[in-house]
C-alpha cells in the first residue's frame, strides 16, 4: 500500500500549464486594455472649452473610470489566481481540492483552471 497522494499525470499537468499560460496572456492583454481606458486622461481636445453638458460628461467620465478601476482590480486578482495555479502545476499539487484532498475533476479545471476546490467542497460551503 502506498501513501502517495493521487495527482494528475505529468502529461495532464503540461496540458493544464499550457491552458493557464494562454489564459494569463489573454488576461494580461485585457488588463492592459482596461488600464489604458481609465488612465487616458491626456485629452488635449477642445472638450473643455464647451460648457454645455459639461457636468453630465464629467460625472459619466468619473463613473466610467471607477467601473474600469474595479474591472482592473478584478482582472489583477484573476491573473494572480492563475499564477498561483501555475505555481501548483510546477509543484505537482495542481488539481487537488484544498478542502477534501481529492482530485478536482478535469472538466472543472478546464473551465476554471484556477479552481482550488472541487464542486463537492464548494457545495459544503453553502
Characterization of this structure:
This protein is mainly α and 126 residues long. Helix content is 63%, strand content 0%. It is built from four helices and no strands. Helix 1 (10-39) runs antiparallel to helix 2. It is elongated, with a radius of gyration of 21 Å. The protein starts with 9 loop residues before the first helix and ends with a helix.
| Main pleated sheet | none
By helix and strand content, what is the structural category? mainly alpha
Radius of gyration: 21 Å
> What is the residue-averaged pLDDT?
84
Strand portion:
under 5%
Low-confidence stretches: none
Tell me how many strands there are. Answer: 0
- List SSEs in N-to-C order: HHHH
Count of alpha and pi helical runs: 4
Residue share in helix: 55-70%
Descriptive keywords:
126 residues; elongated; Znf_DskA_TraR; mainly alpha
Task: Give a quick precis of the structure.
With 126 residues, the chain is an all-alpha fold. Helices cover 63% and strands 0% of the residues.
Topology, element by element:
Blueprint: H1 10-39, H2 54-90, H3 106-111, H4 119-125
